[in-house]
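Q: Got a minute? One more chain.
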Amino acid sequence: MKFFGAYISRLGRSHARPTRGRIRVFDVARGVALVAMAIYHFTWDLEYFHYVPAGLTAAGGWKIFARCIAGSFLFLVGISLVLAHGDRIKWTPFFSRLAMIVLASLAITIVTYLMMPQRYVFFGILHCIALSSLLGLGFLRLPPVLIALAGFLIIFLSPYLHTALFDPPLLNWIGLSTYTIRSNDYVPFFPWFGPVLIGIAVGKVLKKTDGLARLGALYPANDPVGRGLSFLGRHSLAFYLIHQPLLYSIVLVFSLFSPADLRPVYRDLCNPNCAQNDSVAFCQRYCQCTGDKFHEAGLLEDLLYDRLVYHGNDTVTSVVSSCTAESRE
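A: Always. Here it is, folded:
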């Protein structure tokens, strides 16, 4: 995750409502997902600037957290499609919202390519929402059981469908290549179209029963927490586009006045590389020594970010030589 880019479609904003009024619980659900997304992205920013361990947001509980956020967004996209177009597809508002999502996704692709070309966002959450919203229209007239079955099959069978046929870069958006895709926000069509279909199925069931009436009674108007989350949910696109640049800028400014200690980051990279040729004990001493001396010389950041040529630099050569000798004693 990385610019986990998570945003819930605004498809349900003006038409996703029953005749009795807007169902605020869905806006609140969007708001909760947006807050969770901001927490994840802020942690990713801290990781990027080395205030937390490297790889923290890409493994364990944080990885599950990120997937739950993306899944909840896409699930709500499916429900919104039913509420907005369950009886008759309203093409004008649909294409208006789709155009906003497409333009926003293109903007994110361009900006991330300029900032981080090696891991730019070419098919993130917004891209997936745009395509899923368009294709999801074709499922609106099917029985809920068939739609849900298709959604679960996409989710659970996707890991077994990877093939070299989908390895060409132009097909990476499908999500079935045989190699790992490097991107700061990668939400491919497979398996992530699955939660959208499940959301459509649930939305159809709610619409045929009294589920919408029950949900409409939740979060009364005098509930301040519900009002706040509902406000976020109704302005999800703006929140998505603004929050990450703002959070990133805050951490960036903080790093200028209180930079993170890069020595643990350096040792995490140095030890496995060193261990390919020397003992673990030697490498621990060597990486500790070089990390401390590069830090004292003010070279550590330049070395980690490839802004300094390692070989041929007199200071680097001196540090490596002295630390090699000290570590072998």
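A: Residues 263-328 form one domain.
Q: Perfect, thanks.
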